[in-house]
Amino acid sequence: MRKVRGAVGAVRRRQGDGGIVTSEYAMGLIAAVGFAGVLYKVVTSAQVSAALQGVVQKALDVQF
Questions:
Q1: 47 in the Ramachandran plot: left (φ > 0), alpha (ψ -120 to 50) or beta?
Q2: Could you tell me how far CA 17 lies from the centroid of its own chain?
């Protein structure tokens, strides 16, 4: 049993998974950029812009 464990451990050490980490970061970056693009389009749309302007206008018109 020890020989099998030793052989499996040796194979795992030789294979490594350095590329897996890099690909995971790349996929995360692609997803983040896609989400940022969608969010930018939503925030800069006419409806959202008008709503934000309305909120700011109400805040500026508040009587203290």
A1: alpha
A2: 22
Distance CA 17, CA 8 (A): 15
The model's pTM: 0.50
Q: How far apart are CA 13 and CA 37, in angstroms?
A: 40
Q: Distance between CA atoms of 17 and 21, rounded to whole angstroms?
A: 7
Distances 11 to 4, 5, 8 between C-alpha atoms, Å: 11, 10, 5
Query: Alpha-carbon distance 61 to 41, whole Å?
Result: 29
Whole-angstrom Cα distance, residue 24 to residue 32? 12
More confident residue, 63 or 37: 37
